Amino acid sequence: MDVWVLDAMMAAGLNMACWVPVDHDPVPPGVAQFFANSGAIPIAMSRFGRDQLLPFDPLYVPHAVDTGVFTAHDRAECRELTGVPEDAFLVGMVAANKGRPSRKSFQEALQAFRLFREQHDNACLYLHTVIDGEFSQGEDLMALVSSLQLPEGSVLVGDQYRQAFRPVSPEMMARVYSTFDVLLNPARGEGFGIPILEAQSCGVPAIVSDFSAMSEVAGAGWKVECRATWTGQRSWQAVPDVAGIVNALEACYRMSDAERGDLSEMARAHALNYDIEKVTVEFMLPALAEVERRIEARQPIEVAA
After folding, report:
1. By the number of CB atoms within 10 A of the CB, which of 12, 59, 182, 200 ranks highest?
2. Helix (H, G, I), strand (E, B) or coil at 8
């Protein structure tokens, strides 16, 4: 979890390791101050985060994916199951709608999709998120869709009850991903970006911002240039270039079947590097052993009688 919400002095009295996301450059002062004052052992979720936390001697354990569950399924069958038109060019977003402005860049993503849709009337955008901004404390996505005058039927949304109260199972999510031609994840910053990895495991390429963990988690697809933006955490994130997103969508749309197949294989091969068994053995268990070693090496705290 984000450590800047924790009490560093409380943590200083504990043997604590924190598996922490870093989605700014440089690491926000609140995160740095927590580790400086708490003595907690940082475990970075990404290589980007590890590099940001170097002054605190971080360990590195990436998120993982069950590649046996998240695997490609027959697209025609999945589209029939989910009600997506077979001939649609489907752009998918799987992202939490929280915060204003959106860290997931819904505004820029929808602006780009509108420009792309003007040239391709078979393009559809699927939003796997809560669309009620008041409920989710995020953007009013339907108001945004309306303001951009996107044609009726060009934007599809996931079941809203399930989004909030009964999350879709991993097995079903693998089928949802399998309906996509491309995953759109041009976030302002990601501590990791689990949907990117899940989509790649299902053979789906991704369009991401070339920033933070996204640059390493997206192994197949397109990385969009960004401009820096200052945030309330007193550090920098990145706003994706709308034209860059459009160009990436166009590149994906124009691929031949052979090129699409090659990119799908590349995505799957990349995801296999993050398979849950591999990550557990090569990263998590050694990190936990190192945490234990560091804690044992600490001088015991003397407690006054």
Report:
1. 200
2. helix
pLDDT in tens, 222-281: 999 999 999 999 999 999 999 999 999 999 999 999 999 999 999 999 999 999 999 999
Contact (CB, 8 A) for 98 and 151: no
Give the span between the Cα atoms of 63 and 270, in whole angstroms.
13
Structure tokens at 29: 């002062």
CA distance 227 to 218: 19
Nearest to 239 by CA among 143, 112, 145: 112
Distance of CA 267 to the CA centre of its chain: 15
Find out whether 156 and 124 touch, Cβ atoms under 8 Å.
yes
Instruction: Identify the pLDDT of residue 267.
Output: 98
Task: Give the three-class secondary structure for 120.
Answer: coil
pLDDT of residue 300: 65
Q: From CA 259, how far away is CA 226, in angstroms rounded?
A: 26
Please say if the pLDDT value at position 305 is more than 80. no
Burial (CB count within 10 angstroms: exposed 0-12, middle 13-18, buried 19+), residue 255: middle
Q: Where are the domains of the chain?
A: 3-61+276-297, 75-272
d(CA 66, CA 80): 25
- Strands of the sheet containing 41-44, edge to edge, are 17-20, 41-44, 59-60
Mean pLDDT value of segment 37-58: 98
Q: Which CATH superfamily is domain 75-272 in?
A: Glycogen Phosphorylase B; (3.40.50.2000)
Contacts of 229 (CB under 8 A, 6+ apart): 188, 236, 237, 238, 239
Residue 190 CB-density burial (10 A; 0-12 exposed, 13-18 middle, 19+ buried) = buried
Euclidean distance between CA atoms 214 and 180, whole angstroms: 19
Phi, psi at 156, each rounded to 5°? -110, 150
